[in-house]
Amino acid sequence: xxxxxxDRHGTFYLRMVLNDSQRSLYGKRExxxxxxxxxxxxxxxxxxxxxxxxxxMLGEGSPVRPxxxxxxxxxxxxLSTLLAKHEHHQTLSAVLPSTIYKTxxxxxxxxxxxxxxxxxxxxxxxxxxxxxxxxxxxxxxxPDQTISVTTFNNYCSNIISFFSWCEREGYVDSNVxxxxxxxxxxxxxxxxxxxxxxxxxxxxxxxxxxxxxxxDRYWVPYIAYYTGCRINEACMxxxxxxxxxxxxxxxxxxxxxxxxxxxxxxxxxxxxxHQELINTGFxxxxxxxxxxxxxxxxxxxxxxSFSAQLSQWFGKLLxxxxxxxxxxxxxxxxxxxxxxxxxxxxxxxxxxxxxxxTNSITYDIYGKRLxxxxxxxxxxxKIPSLQDRA
Length: 390
Hints:
This protein is mostly helical. It has helices at about 20-25, 40-60, 80-90, 95-115, 125-135, 150-170, 195-210, 215-225, 230-235, 275-280, 280-290, 310-320, 330-340, 345-355, 375-380, 385-390, and strands spanning about 1-5, 10-15, 30-35, 140, 140-145, 240-245, 250-255, 270. The chain has 16 helices and eight strands. The strands form three sheets. A three-stranded antiparallel sheet has the order 1-2-3. It has a three-stranded antiparallel sheet with strand order 6-7-8. A two-stranded antiparallel ribbon has the order 4-5. The longest helix is centred in the first third of the chain and has 20 residues, at about 40-60. It is elongated.
C-alpha cells in the first residue's frame, strides 16, 4: 500500500508499506521516497511516477540502499580558508592594501549571504542567491535605498577575481561567478557626475564659513580641485612632497614613505601648484605643520588608506547641501578632467597631470608621462579659479 505523508519540515514523501517477502528481503517494514516539494498539488502530480519507479525497483529485487552520507567537508578548501591564502598571495605580489581589503570584504559578504563551504561546491544557484540578496542591501548612509548597480558590480569584480585565482591554483575547474555582473549601456564619463558651478560655490562657501574647521577638511578639497588628484593622494602627502622644481612650486604624488601607496605606476607625477591655491594660504599652512605629514590628524585604516574618515565626512557634507546622488569626492577629479577636455588640452599633458594610463577614463590614447613641471603650468592654469566661478 502507498500513502502520501509529510515530514516535520513540510516536504511530501511517498510511503509504501512492504509485504512479508519484501520485508525479509530488504530488512525494513516500509519504503519512503521524497517527492521534493512542499505543495500538495505538486506532490499529487509527482506521486504516480514515484510509485511506478518504486515498484520497478522492488520488482527487480534490488535491495533498498540507505541514502549516502554527505561527503565530508575538506576544511582546507573552505572559502574562508582559501581567502586567507589569497590574501597572503596578494601581499607577496605587492597588491595594494586597499585592493586586498576590497577583495576580503566582497568575499566575506558572499559567505554571509550564502554560506562558507568548499569552493568547488559553489554553483550557479549560489550565484543567483548572492545576486538577489546583495542587490537588496541598504546603501551606506541611505537606509531607505538599496546599493547601486555600480557598487554591486564592484563586489562582483572582486569575487570573480578571487575565483579566477582559485581556478588558476586548481581549486575549481571553472569560475561559476563569471558573468554575474550587470551590464548597462552607459558612457564611461557618466558614472560620476561633475560638480557644477553652483555645486562648487556651495561646497567652498561652506568650508570658508565653518568655524574652526579641521585643516584636512578645508585643504584637501582645495587640493583636489586645483590638481585633479585622488582623495588618498592628497591625504597621504608628506611635507617632503612639496618643493620647487625649476622655480615652480610642485606637489609630488609618489610612494616615498612607508605609508604612501599609489594606484599604479602612472600615478606618480609632479604637479605644479595652482597660483590660487598658493594665494589661499596653502604654503603657509604647510610651513606651520610640525609633523612629517601634511595632515597628521588623519589616521591610516586597515586598507592602508588615510582618506576613509574624510571621505565619509565629505559625503555627509554633500547630502546636507543636497548635492548628489551621483556626486562624490571623486567628482573633483572628473570636474578637472572635464575642464581639460573642454579647453582642448593635449591628451599627453592631461595624462601627466592626472596620472592616468593608456585607455584611461579621461582620454582614449595617452602620450608619454612628462616629468618637467614647467610644461604643465599652463595646463594647471586652465583650471578656473574658484573666485572666477563664484
